[in-house]
Amino acid sequence: MFKKLAYILLTLTPGSVLSNEPKDWQLGFQKAASQGMEDIVWFHDYMLLPIITAITVFVLFLLLYTCVRYRASKNKVASTTSHNTLVEVLWTLIPCLILIVMAVPSFKVLYSQDTIPKADVTIKAVGYQWYWGYEYPDENIISESYMVDEKDLKENQPRLLTVDNEVYVPVNKVVKVMITANDVLHAWALPSFGVKRDAVPGRINETWFKADRTGTFYGQCSELCGIKHAFMPITVNVVTEEEYKKWLEKAKVEFAKKDLDNNIKLAKKVKEIR
Description:
Elements: H1 2-12, H2 35-69, H3 85-114, E1 121-128, E2 131-136, E3 141-145, E4 167-170, E5 175-181, E6 186-190, E7 195-199, E8 205-209, E9 215-221, E10 233-239, H4 241-273
Parallel strand pairs: 1-5, 4-10
Antiparallel strand pairs: 1-2, 2-3, 5-8, 6-7, 6-9, 9-10
C-alpha cells in the first residue's frame, strides 16, 4: 500500500518524471530533453502557475470577504454606490500589466520555436491513416512506422507507444522536421522536445528540436484522425553521432532492400492484372 501511494505521489509531481514516456496518473510534463522544452517548463512553472495561483487566491478572498462583510444580517439598508473610479482604473490596469508580464517570455518561447536554425539533419514526417512515414531526404532513406501489437511486444517495451521502425537522430544536433499528411489531419507531437505541429494534406509545416541527451523518446498523433487515432505512436531514438552514422549505413541497405521487394511485388501484381 505504501509503495503504491509513493508511486502515485511521484508520478503526480512534474519534477519527478523519470522517463521519456507518459506514466499512469501523471499530471506534470515529461522530463525535458531540449532547450525548447526547458523554456516551456520554466514558463509554466515560474510564470503561469504563480500568476494563476495568486489570482485564484485573491478572487477567492474577495468572494469570502464580500459574503461576510456585506451579508444581509449586517447590512439592513442596501448600498446605493453606483461606481468607484479608482477601483475601475485598477481592475483595468492590473490585468493589462499582468498580460504584458506574461507576453514577454511567451513571445520569446514562440519565436525560438518558429525560428529554425541551420539543420544538421532533415526529416520529413508524413501522416497516414494510421501510421507514420519518414524520409531522410539527404540520405535517400524512406521508411514506414507502424505500432507494434501488444502480443508482439518485447520486455520493457511500452504498450501503444512501440513501433517497428524508429526514427534515429544524433544528440546535440539541430533536427528539422517537415510535417505533412496524405489523407486527413494528423499532428506530430513529442512532449520531451516541446514539439507539436499539425500534419495537413497538401501543406508542409516545419519544426525543429535539438536533443540534449540520448535515449528513447515517445510521442503520439495529437489530432483526431479516425478510428485508429490512438494507434499512431512516434518513437525517436537519440544516439551518439557515431551510433547515428552506423545506423545510417544499415538503414540505407535495409530500406533499399524493402523498396526493391515492394517494387517486385508491385510488378508481379501488374503482370497478373494484364
